[in-house]
Amino acid sequence: MSGGPLAGIRILEVGTMLAGPYATMMLADLGAEVTKIEPAGGDISRQVGDSYFASLNRGKRSVRLDLTSEEGRERLGGLVAGAHALLVNLKPSAIHRYGLTYEALRRWNEGIVCVALTGFGLHAGDDPAFDYVVQAATGVAALTGDPDGPPTLPGYSSADNSTGLTAAIGLLAQIVSGRGGQVEVSLRDVMLSQLNYRAAAYLNDGVEPRRHPNGAHSFYVPAQLFPTAEGHLALFVTHDAFWKAFAAEAGIEGFPTMAERVARREEVLSAVTRALAADSALSWEARLRPWGVPAAAVRTLPEALEATPEAIVTAGDFRLVANPVRVAGYTPAYGPPPGLGEHDEA
Q: Which Pfam families match (predicted)?
């Protein structure tokens, strides 16, 4: 499968920064031909840094178009005529103003799939919708952190990345349908969707989510971070067999059922904390692995990357994290990120 599972699929991208470019890069890794349409000054992410831009745009082509001009929109139409899909990551007003919707572009290609990736919806206005803002607005920040501390944001762009992956699914689903049309994906809707069981508990049972210390799970006990003699350990005991194996290794007696562990949460957590204090996080990870107990020492990103060299690839002059989709018989080429306007003439 030298060309990849998406070989022959041609995708146009009018995107900026993260969510849209990440979506199309995932597709480019899998063999799609992705053409990044940029203004004269380029995607503003080029100004953030070369490695930042490369991490979202490897393996693409770059064409400069002035979509504010009639000539630029005509040239876009020519590209649309030969493409399967267009993914746009702009404010709704800009998407409509530049004619980047299916209704505006179908005259060039009835089969074109137009994906609008926005903050709140294609017809919901232009309220700012950056990653952290959306996490705050959808309840994610309020769910994160210790109960006595302030709301907390994760150390990476979880809303942008999640929405990019969802947009890629929507784009491929419509292509597989064999029909052109408009697809919408918003950061708000994606983050609410990812609160699935939390939202269901509130909507159906009136259970308002609350934070537990050390990121503890609301249903499973013990399932959280624990301090050890050296470092922290993430332990995730979801059923009684896991508990039996862990308790035997840790020398803890009692609490044999999930119901009892939930009912006696504080006692269980105290017993586990005392036991784990006797050894380091890395040692506990090694001791529990043969038993199949879900546990991992908390690592820094550099430590995690060093431990997984198979996840690192080379794209031109850059070392980057590989596409997480592994397809039997196919190895992505991982081309370099394009220079601004590199493929104007082509």
A: CoA_transf_3
User: Of these residues, 160, 189, 205, 344, which one is catalytic?
Assistant: 160
Q: What backbone torsions phi and psi does residue 192 show, to the nearest 5 degrees?
A: -65, -40
Helix, strand, coil percentages for the chain (3-state, nearest 5): 40, 15, 45
Sign of the dihedral defined by the CA atoms of residues 77, 82, 85, 90, in that order: negative
CA distance between the termini of the chain? 26
Using CA atoms, how far apart are residues 87 and 21, in angstroms rounded to an integer? 9
Please say if the pLDDT value at position 2 is more than 80.
no
Rounded Cα–Cα distance for residues 62 and 122 (Å): 25
Contact predicate 62/38, CB 8 Å: yes
Residue 160 bears catalytic tag: yes
Quick one: pLDDT at residue 278?
Answer: 98
Whether pTM > 0.85 for this model: the answer is: yes
Give the distance from CA 152 to its chain's centroid. Answer: 18
What is the rounded radius of gyration, in angstroms, for the C-alpha atoms of the chain? 24
Average pLDDT of the chain is 96
pLDDT score recorded for residue 1: 52
